[in-house]
Amino acid sequence: MAYGGAALTWAAFAAASRRIAQGLAAAGIGPGDRVAIWLSNRPEYLIALFACARLGVTVVHINTRFRAPEVQALLDRTRPSALLTAPPLMALLPEILADARGPLRFVIGLDAGGVTEVGGLPVMAWAALDAAPERLANDATAETACLTFTTSGTTSGPKLVLHTQGSIATHARDVAAATGTDGEGAALLSVVPLCGTFGLAFAMAGVAGGALIVTMERFDAEAADAAIRAHGISHLIGSDDMFLRIAAVAGERAYAPFRFSGFASFSPGADRVMEVCGGLNMAPRGIYGSSEMQALFAQQDAADPIRARIGGGTPVSKRAEVRARDLETGILAAHGELEFRSPSMFSGYLNNPEATAKAMTADGFYRSGDLGRVHHGHSFDFETRIGDALRLGGFLVNPEEIEVFLKRQAGVVEAQVVGARGGTVAVAFVQGDAPDPEALRAACVASLARFKVPAAILALEAFPVTDSPNGVKIQRARLREMADAALAETV
Question: Start and end of every AMP-binding enzyme C-terminal domain (predicted)?
Fold first, then answer.
């Protein structure tokens, strides 16, 4: 691995994970416990993940872009025994821990600079854990809970996707074989956040294949361009916007041919990505994944000029099963809601059997909530989310999450949030007793992750509605038109 000019061999990585495991065990962390990780992309993130796996400990991933109330809610629901973090995030802990502590016993401080206490909890330095002897005992099993991803949902109750060690490890090997991270000289740039399935599945494929992993704590196009050239990066994933920003820095200086690059299209820019990045030898293709099935579940053929630009493709696992169910008739068909069954599948939603049952079919397929078309019974094309989910800042967000927060604010009786500009920008509409849009947006900025903050908040006397056989429904399509018009006026 490479980070900040330093290098770490895989042998050193494995030894470090065994030392951290022993340090955690000596601190009382063991099978059945949970450890939360709130870090940006750096080697210690993966070292801690492997250390926890050796102990039979479940890792709770926390998005580094979450604000204090979101972290509080996640800690309350997952109840970890320890939390790994580093400055500047550590500075937020006194506010967070004032209202959310649960069973937390200590904080693991990375680059903590001698801090011994934060928010009333002791701080154990990463270096102290790393000074422990290597732990040879291994409590890992394929069935042991490994980690949770946080899906979109209301602020008070997002779904927590639980994966076993077997699903994570098996998928990592499948992705490595399908993308070539197990090939000689493979090098991948890890810039998509490790706290989410896209960043983690990609990095785990690098681990499984023994590739060079170059970690970046935050995306910067110039730094990414430099890393690609300096390290001979052969594998890259990201959003379409990220690819275009790298291409803008590259100019006409083509890269050495990439072996694999995949992008998720969060705006109407796929054609541009294919045109610009293809000319730089990046050979991008559409990829598909979810927290439940894991990212890089499927990839399109980069040689197919038509389908390469859309999500979906052929699953990386030869044991994966794909089918579609017609939305109107409920019977299996070539087009409809995509359903999946694969070794990469999640084991359920943490402490939420009702949601787990709702997401599964009677014969064990996951209902994706995505609309698509199946080809030849195995490969498929992703078209869109069936619901009204938004794609903001590279994350899939349920508008209800923002709506619930807005309805808690003074003067707001009802709120509707829709996606403008192709679903990539959130715009909120509120009703109530003279709600103040500027004050509401300030509240969002203070309490929500930046990518969830609406670009505009508009007050309406009444929402546009229509009568249907199932009752009066809000015309969200009309709201989207109004949102696009409002943003156009601000340009």
Answer: 401-468
Question: 312-315 and 321-325: which strand pairing?
Answer: unpaired
Tell me if 146 is assigned to some domain.
Answer: no
Sign of the Cα torsion 30, 36, 38, 40 reads positive
The CATH number of residue 477's host domain is 3.30.300.30
Residue 152 in domain: no
* Nearest CA-CA partner of 358 in 450, 407, 284, 292: 292
Distance between CA atoms of 65 and 193, rounded to whole angstroms?
Answer: 10
Contact at 8 Å (CB) between 175 and 201? yes
DSSP letter for each residue of 138-158: ----TTSEEEEEE-S--TT--
Q: Are 435 and 411 in contact (CB under 8 A)?
A: yes
The residue length of the chain stands at: 491
Consecutive 10-residue averages of pLDDT for the chain (491 residues): 91 98 98 97 97 98 90 92 96 87 90 92 97 96 96 63 98 98 97 94 98 96 97 94 93 95 72 88 92 96 85 95 93 95 98 95 96 88 77 79 91 91 90 91 94 94 70 79 89 57
| Number of separate domains in the chain | 3
Same domain assignment for residues 129 and 216? no
Cβ burial of 407 (10 Å; 0-12, 13-18, 19+) is middle
Residue-wise pLDDT tens digits, 396-447: 787 888 998 999 999 999 999 998 888 889 999 999 988 899 999 999 999 9
Q: Which amino acid is at 25?
A: A
The pLDDT assigned to 468 comes to: 45
Please give the structure tokens belonging to residue 376: 């030849």
Cα–Cα nearest to 230, from 222, 240, 238, 241: 222
Question: Domain check: are 358 and 217 in the same one?
Answer: yes
Q: What is the CATH number of the domain that holds 369?
A: 3.40.50.12780
Q: Is 423 left (phi over 0), alpha (psi -120 to 50) or beta?
A: left
Burial call 333-347: b when 16+ CB within 10 Å, e when fewer: bebbbbbbbbbbbbb
Give the strands of the sheet with 145-150, arranged side by side.
117-118, 121-125, 106-109, 82-85, 34-38, 58-61, 145-150, 160-164, 348-349
Question: What is the domain extent for residue 114?
Answer: 2-140
